[in-house]
């Protein structure tokens, strides 16, 4: 298995950038499209937990948008072969003095005809800590 093939890193990075755009724009439809919609999908949020695509979509429909001042730092995309990746990033915003941390597991699950070559978030974790 080859780690960090440039073309796969580019695909995952494009999908991640699209998700981040949707997050900041509060484009719920786009965010939902980039999450795997199955009972196996898990999202651990800052103050909540969702198990399954339905729970994630229900939460998205009612949650407050992220601050538009959100800025990413130290984003790391790591790919494994052609169909599996992790994206880790830190974030800050004017809304809190805390440092945010976000990790996503991505998998290619659908045909290349799908948006972003079928890349979907299959697990995610978001947390806040005091600034180091």
UniProtKB/TrEMBL annotation:
<dbReference type="Pfam" id="PF11533">
    <property type="entry name" value="AtzH-like"/>
</dbReference>
<dbReference type="InterPro" id="IPR024507">
    <property type="entry name" value="AtzH-like"/>
</dbReference>
<protein>
    <recommendedName>
        <fullName>Oxalurate catabolism protein HpxZ</fullName>
    </recommendedName>
</protein>
<dbReference type="InterPro" id="IPR032710">
    <property type="entry name" value="NTF2-like_dom_sf"/>
</dbReference>
